[in-house]
Specification:
It is a single chain. Helices cover 11% and strands 20% of the residues. It is of the alpha+beta class. The chain has a five-stranded antiparallel β-sheet with strand order 1-7-14-10-9, with no helix packed on it. A five-stranded antiparallel β-sheet has the order 2-3-4-16-8, with no helix packed on it. Strands 6-5-15 form a three-stranded antiparallel β-sheet, with no helix packed on it. A hairpin with a 5-residue loop joins strand 5 and strand 6 (126-128).
């Protein structure tokens, strides 16, 4: 599984833990919600191995090379981040085909995507909800409000407070997977996937309060959509017919330690997660008079149960394995413009990477129907 030794995991000092819990207590008192300062997590746990980084948007269009390879267009609109090799048909080592990436780490040519969130007006028309960058994604953990939309990507090991004692195997070239399904229609099915959730944001730092469906009230700082992927691989297949069976989920959500991998899927891989910040605040004064929830995924789901995400691995060489075997955590692994164990680029360069859309259709403005959906939802 590799020639790298496991990294030590010393316990933080009492003083460091006191600073960590004091930060949470102060935020609870001031904001009445759980806020976690990622900067203080870096102080509290100095020897870990985990990545947290931002990626700008590279495309918003109807393509899905995992679920619908070769289909132009695919069934519904996606928002995509990552390498510029993204197209309708992607096979083999994606990392060797890209020339630029919208992610902070220049060795990451992976592609990450989800459906797009739309607002449905009382008059029946739709408008795409804009995205905005998460907190502390800039140089050395500062905010970077100039990141062009996109998502926050995590590769963690045990949880946010430790890396455990398991060897974490990086995904191999050609690997891909999905999580969730647009066919999920009930809360019972949604509850079986604790890693797929929403947070009604009081501020950009709100954490801890998650629901399996869309919030039923206007959110002061928008809606965060959360996708946690399975972290147990069968060790053989790069994909499977349903794009999920080669993986096994023991995920508990909220970055808690996942359960042990079963014998059928014995290889522990990084715990991959996305956070997407949807700026629903621009529609707060248009909330329906009857109080009904007005947001809908691009495939027509107005409950939120069908949320799903796709992943196409594209890290160059051994860069991801190198990071997983290092002792860095979050921006200490490198941040925009400041190299660490991984090479980085500036936010300006992240935003500069782009591709031309393959599908020529309007996905913005006020639309009569959702793109690809024949009837208004």
């Amino acid at each position: 599984m590799g020639a790298y030794p496991c990294q030590p995991n010393p316990q933080p000092s009492l003083r460091q833990f006191l600073f960590y819990y004091l930060d949470i207590s102060v935020r609870l008192f001031k904001m009445r919600t759980i806020h976690i300062s990622l900067l203080l997590l870096q102080t509290a746990c100095p020897v870990l191995a985990g990545l947290r980084f931002g990626c700008s948007s590279i495309s918003i269009q109807r393509l899905d090379p995992v679920v619908e390879p070769g289909n132009i267009p695919s069934a519904h609109v996606h928002q995509i981040i990552g390498g510029d090799a993204f197209n309708a048909t992607m096979q083999g080592d994606v990392g060797e085909r890209g020339s630029c990436t919208t992610c902070a780490y220049t060795e990451d040519f992976s592609n990450y995507w989800t459906a797009v969130l739309y607002f449905r007006h009382e008059n029946g028309s739709y408008r795409r909800v804009p995205q905005y960058p998460n907190a502390q994604l800039g140089t050395e953990g500062q905010d970077a409000p100039d990141i062009n939309g996109g998502m926050t990507v995590y590769y963690t090991q045990k949880d946010l407070l430790g890396n455990g004692d398991q060897y974490i195997t990086a995904f191999p070239p050609g690997f891909r997977m999905t999580v969730g399904s647009p066919t999920t229609k009930s809360i019972n099915d949604s509850n079986a996937q604790p890693g797929l959730r929403y947070t009604c944001l009081e501020t950009i730092l709100t954490r801890g309060s998650e629901t399996p469906d869309f919030p039923d009230k206007p959110c002061p700082a928008g809606i965060m959509a959360i996708h946690h992927f399975p972290a147990c691989w069968d060790g053989v297949n790069l994909d499977s017919p349903d794009h999920q069976s080669h993986m096994y989920s023991t995920t508990l959500g909220q970055f808690r330690e996942a359960g042990p991998c079963p014998a059928s899927h014995p290889v522990r891989v990084p715990q991959l997660a996305y956070e997407t910040m949807w700026d629903t605040t621009v529609f707060n004064d248009m909330w329906p008079k009857d109080g009904s929830q007005p947001f809908v995924w691009s495939f027509g789901d107005n409950k939120g149960y069908g949320t799903h995400a796709d992943y196409m691995f594209g890290w160059k060489g051994d860069s991801l394995q190198r990071a997983m075997n290092d002792s860095c955590m979050f921006h200490a692994c490198g941040s925009p413009g400041h190299d660490g164990i991984l090479k980085t680029q500036s936010v300006e360069d992240m935003n500069r990477c782009a591709i031309e859309n393959t599908v020529d259709e309007d996905t913005d403005g006020w639309l009569e129907t959702l793109p690809g959906q024949e009837m208004p939802m």
